[in-house]
From TrEMBL:
The keyword Transmembrane helix is assigned to this record: no
Pfam hit, one: Response_reg
Domain GGDEF: 350-483
Record's keyword annotation contains Cell membrane: no
Species classification: Bacteria, Pseudomonadati, Pseudomonadota, Betaproteobacteria, Burkholderiales
GO molecular function annotation: catalytic activity
Start and end residues of each PAS domain: 178-233
Protein name according to UniProt: EAL domain-containing protein
Top-level taxon of the source organism: Bacteria
Residue span, Response regulatory domain: 45-159
Gene Ontology biological process terms, A to Z: phosphorelay signal transduction system; regulation of DNA-templated transcription
NCBIfam families per UniProt: GGDEF, sensory_box
EAL domain residues: 492-746
Length: 750
């Protein structure tokens, strides 16, 4: 026995109240309800509306076995309240209700945009009710009485249609999302994606083309690909844009230059990975029953902008072969070009010149004004040299202040001298650096192919030798290579190797040249001078080997040895109780700058128990140029420990009297070049007199070097200089000879 449905009591309806569809407010969120919930595996929610309780119960009974979720209302207000509170898939409405009609309820549903299907159940016989319901969107209109099968079929069809509509909407949304995603991915791609028809005309292109080429999509669609291709790349482009192969055989990584908008050619280069679409790509081949073979209908391609990569590669390549500072070819590019020039000269039987250019005094400018100004000077020099070259010549910077140039197709050596003269002339004009005028010159060595060498290394080596030859001869000039330079260079290398062995082999010895008080004949001091007992060349003076020591980094080691040897000899003489004499030691600027000289001297004096007042350090005037602040600090430290300072070769170097006030100087030594000018004791030699006057005025000792004649000694003594050193009195003596001299001098005084 079927029981009546258990439903909530109907909401009391006040039929006397004026109720219309417009009186019901729109509730938030109702228009957002989706019908996608009507799925085959979910129960449908139905609203049954009828004012006859018996008919409503019967309707409920008919539908409850179908598995639906059923809600009932006996008046229009109940129905609207339920529609506001819940989503219903289907509403079965009676048109005649005590408060509002079914048409009014449908108006509410339509106005609020509720996604609810409507089936009208009505006993009216007139056609107007049915027409009004259908106009308002009712799915169907059943006239009472209706059969059970008719009702169930109508409800089932309505729900089935809802499910189909919902599925269609879902598929449409999915397709729309898929299309949007596809277009987003395609248009957001960093690559140009395009398709061409079988005629080579663009049928699709993404937005990236506009960003790279400045061309709108509409400007490309329908146009032939050739409108974009650089004229020089059209032949290669044919195989890219007419590609018909698929898979691994398709065209890949072909670089083409494309034209930009307004007919301007862009610098963009593209790396094209072009393939013809096959069965799994985009259906670019048509497979039909009527076609015996797949039909080709277009090309699909991807073009990647590799402009920045190409620029970076070009920059890296350029920097690998050019000097960053001067923009000249570097050593690698120079050698490569010179190699080609030698091959051509050999084929044509022409001569070729290689020049090695080294700037004179560049280190002085660099140290004085700083490296930034030094770089500016190199840039200006490079510019001047380039403007003095012949067409076809190659100028390069090897590094530092060294430049090389080769002159191809040389007619004779005179051609090389003309270029060298131009270089020297263009460098004579002053350079402007930080508001100062700077003057430099250059030393140029020249080697000629094939006479001076047939390989790159031989020509560069021989040009370098010729450059050092002109350096030794006074700089600011040029010199051609001569085979005799090879022997001289070999001797330098041999000398350097022998000097390194001399330090360890005991071949060095200290000699001493006495300094005499001309009034009394007494030995008041001596200058320590280094000698080398060369196993083959005999006794060498310091001037014959110390320049090589400075060039090859041996000066500090040799100076360390000299300081140790001098202190050892002085300590030995002091132990014999001979009247102590002051020993002077000439120190190179290099040793004073880098050799920790003052601490080393202090340690040696302490080790050998020598009074600091017994030692005098000689420096040249040029020490004031190298690093005046550092030199002043070092010399003041010497004064603080009690060691005196002498200026050697006074008048031949820096020639500024300001340093005599800044530095703690005790003695001035007149250079022997001024002493040699003295030929008569009663003549007038103003330079010598001026130096003696300066020393006396500043309260300094003055010593004359290189005194060799009685006339020189007489003139100096008469002028007020009584301390002398030279062959007139004594030549440099070995340590043992000097000790014997001290013995004899002490015996005469006794």
């Amino acid at each position: 026995m079927r029981h009546p449905p258990q439903r909530p009591p109907p909401i009391p309806c006040d039929v006397s109240k004026n109720v219309s569809a417009d009186n019901f407010p729109s509730l938030p969120g109702l228009d957002a309800v989706s019908a996608d919930s009507v799925a085959a595996d979910q129960p449908a929610r139905l609203l049954l509306v009828d004012d006859e309780p018996r008919l409503l119960a019967s309707l409920h009974a008919l539908l409850e076995d179908e598995g639906h979720e059923l809600h009932t209302a006996s008046c229009g207000r109940d129905a609207v309240a339920l529609l506001d509170a819940h989503h219903f898939d289907l509403a079965l409405l009676d048109l005649r209700l005590p408060d509002i009609s079914g048409h009014q309820i449908m108006d509410v549903i339509n106005r609020k945009g509720l996604d609810t299907s409507i089936i009208i159940l009505s006993g009216e016989t007139g056609i107007e009710g049915a027409i009004g319901a259908l106009k308002r969107g009712a799915y169907d209109y059943l006239r009472k009485p209706y059969s059970r099968e008719e009702l169930l079929n109508t409800v089932a069809n309505a729900l089935r249609q809802r499910r189909l509509e919902a599925e269609n909407r879902r598929i449409a949304r999915q397709l729309d999302r898929s299309e949007k995603l596809y277009r987003y991915l395609v248009d957001s791609s960093p690559d140009i994606i395009y398709t061409l028809n079988e005629e080579g005309r663009f049928s699709f292109v993404n937005d990236r083309a506009q960003q790279v080429l400045g061309l709108e999509r509409e400007q490309l669609i329908g146009n032939h690909y050739s409108v974009l291709i650089h004229d020089e790349d059209l032949d290669r482009a044919y195989y890219v844009f007419n590609e018909r192969r698929v898979g691994e055989r398709a065209t890949r990584n072909v670089e083409l230059r494309l034209k930009a908008a307004n007919g301007r050619e862009s610098n963009a280069v593209f790396e094209n990975s072009v393939v013809t679409l096959s069965f799994n790509s985009m259906g670019m081949y048509v497979n039909g029953k009527d076609a015996p073979e797949p039909g080709f209908f277009g090309t699909y391609g991807v073009a990647r902008d590799v402009t920045e990569r190409k620029r970076a590669e070009e920059m890296i390549s350029y920097q690998a072969y050019h000097d960053v500072l001067t923009d000249l070819p570097n050593r690698t590019l120079f050698r490569d070009r010179l190699s080609m020039a030698i091959l051509q000269a050999k084929r044509k039987e022409h001569e070729l010149a290689v020049m090695f250019i080294d700037l004179d005094r560049f280190k002085l400018v660099n140290d004085t004004l700083g490296h930034l100004r030094g770089d500016e000077l190199l840039q200006q020099v490079a510019s001047r040299l380039k403007n003095s070259m012949r067409q076809g010549d190659t100028l390069a910077r090897l590094g530092g202040d060294e430049f090389t140039i080769f002159l191809p197709e040389l007619q004779n050596r005179h051609d090389a001298t003309v270029v060298a003269d131009k270089f020297l002339e263009t460098l004579r004009a002053p350079f402007e650096l930080a508001g100062q005028q700077v003057h430099i010159s250059a030393s140029i060595g020249i080697a000629v192919y094939p006479h001076d060498g047939e390989t790159i290394d031989e020509l560069l080596c021989h040009a370098d030798m010729a450059m050092y030859q002109i350096k030794a001869e006074g700089k600011n000039g040029y010199s051609f290579y001569d085979p005799a330079m090879q022997e001289a260079s070999y001797q330098k290398i041999t000398l350097e190797q022998s000097l390194r062995k001399a330090l360890d082999g005991g071949e060095l010895e200290m000699f001493y040249q006495p300094q005499i008080d001309a009034r009394t004949g007494r030995i008041v001091g001596a200058e320590g001078l280094m000698r080398w007992h060369h196993p083959e060349r005999g006794l060498l003076t310091a001037g014959e080997f110390l320049p090589f020591a400075e060039e090859n980094g041996l000066m500090i080691q040799i100076s360390d040895w000299m300081l140790e040897a001098l202190c050892r000899d002085v300590a030995q003489w002091n132990r014999i109780h001979i009247d102590p004499v002051r020993l002077s030691l000439n120190v190179s600027p290099q040793y004073l700058d880098r050799g920790n000289f003052v601490p080393k001297l202090q340690a040696a004096l302490a080790h050998y128990d020598i009074p600091p007042s017994q030692i005098e350090i000689e420096v040249t005037e040029n020490i004031c140029i190298r690093n005046p602040q550092h030199a002043a600090e070092q010399l003041h430290k010497l004064g603080e420990i009690g060691v005196s300072v002498a200026i050697d070769d006074f008048g031949t170097g820096y020639s500024s009297l300001s340093y005599l006030h800044r530095f703690p100087v005790n003695t001035i030594k007149i250079d022997q070049s001024f002493i040699r000018e003295i030929h008569q004791a009663d003549a007038h030699y103003p330079v010598v007199l001026a130096i003696i006057s300066i020393a006396k005025g500043l309260g300094l000792n003055v010593v004359a070097e290189g005194v060799e004649t009685p006339a020189q000694a007489a003139y100096l003594e008469h002028s007020g200089c009584t301390l002398m050193q030279g062959y007139l009195y004594h030549k440099p003596l070995s340590g043992s000879q000097f000790l014997q001299l001290l013995y004899r001098s002490a015996a005469r005084r006794a």
